[in-house]
Amino acid sequence: MFFDQAIVRVRAGVRVDRGGNRLPDWSPEAATRLTIAEVDVQPTTATESTTPERVAVVTGWHVQTPPGVDVDVRATDRIEWADMLLEVVGEVARWPDPLDGTVHHVEFDVVRATG
Fold it and tell me: Which of 32, 34, 89, 105 has the fewest CB within 10 Å, making it most exposed?
C-alpha cells in the first residue's frame, strides 16, 4: 500500500431546534475540518440502479492509515476527497497492535451516492 493521499474529515457542529433537540449542523460556519495526510484510499464497490425517473449510482472506497497511525474520524463524519463529499459507512475500525495494545492502524469505508 502507498500512504500518499490526503483526506479532509468534516465533522458537523450542533444546533438546537425549537424542541430543545440537539441536531447535527453541517453548515460551513458550524462544521469543522481536519486534513489527514498519509492515508491509502482504494475503490471497493460501485452499484447502479435504474428506474424510469432516475439512475442512482453508489460508489465506495476503503481508507486505511499506515501502521502506528490513529486518526480522529467517527462514523458520523463526512470525508472530502478527490473533489467529492463522502459519507463514512459503518464504524471506524481501530486495529490493536498485538505487542502493546495501542492502535496499529485505522480502516473505514466511505461512499458517494448520486442520482
Answer: 32
- Integer Cα distance of 98 and 67 in angstroms: 12
**Could you give the number of structural domains in the chain?**
1
pTM of the shown model? 0.89
CA 91 to the chain's CA centroid: 10
Q: For 4-56, how does the pLDDT look when each residue is reduced to its tens digit (9 = 90+)? A: 999 999 999 999 999 999 999 999 999 999 999 999 999 998 899 888 888 88
Query: The domain spanning residue 96 has which CATH number?
Result: 2.40.10
Q: Cα(67)–Cα(61) distance, rounded to whole angstroms?
A: 19
- Chain mean position to CA 79: 4
C-beta separation of 70 from 78 below 8 A: no
CA 22 – CA 38 distance, rounded (Å): 34
d(CA 65, CA 106): 5
C-alpha 68/C-alpha 102 separation (Å) is 8
